[in-house]
Amino acid sequence: MKQEASYFEGKEPVLIYIAKKLRDALRLEAVLNEAGVDYGVEADEYRAGVIFRTVRAGAFFYVLGETLPAAQDVMRRNGYQPYEGPPPNVG
Fold first, then answer.
1. Is 73 in a helix, a strand, or coil?
2. pLDDT tens-place string over residues 1-35
3. Per-residue pLDDT, 50
4. What are phi and psi of 3, to 5 degrees?
5. Dist. CA 49–CA 15, nearest whole Å
6. What is the DSSP letter of 9?
7. Reduced to 3 states, what is the DSSP secondary structure of residue 40?
8. What share of the chain is helix, strand, coil (3-state, %, to 5)?
9. Which of 33, 41, 52, 82 has its CA 20 to 30 A from that of 23?
10. What are 29-70's pLDDT values in tens digits?
11. Which residues of 54-88 are buried (b: 16+ CB within 10 A; e: fewer)?
12. In the β-sheet with 54-64, what is the strand arrangement from edge to edge?
């Protein structure tokens, strides 16, 4: 279920996905809600492009570490590739 920022206070949220389109973000929210996964989402900027670098807005999805495996499993079963790697270079 979607959580407020206070849910993550004093804890280390883990980035699981960056939705680049609103439709994608809304669908992922529905998938996570239906599965009962607690998550947070916030709008932020990310950098895109190799030659022509641009700054774009996206929806960044986070979970707590203890729910990471379950969230990744739900995402994969629904056609999403979970974000894995170092935190992206955001605005």
1. helix
2. 999 989 999 999 999 999 999 999 999 999 999 99
3. 83
4. -115, 155
5. 21
6. T
7. strand
8. 35, 35, 35
9. 52
10. 999 999 999 999 999 988 888 888 888 899 999 999 999 999
11. eeeebbbbbbbeebbeebbebbeeeebebbeeeee
12. 13-19, 54-64, 40-48
Buried/exposed code over 10-45 (b: 16+ C-beta within 10 A; e: otherwise)? eeebbbbbbbeeeeebeebbebbeebebbbbbeeee
Q: Which residue has tokens 């979607």?
A: 2
The pTM of the full predicted model, rounded to 2 decimals, is 0.87
With CA atoms as reference, report the closest residue to 12 among 40, 43, 35, 47.
Answer: 40
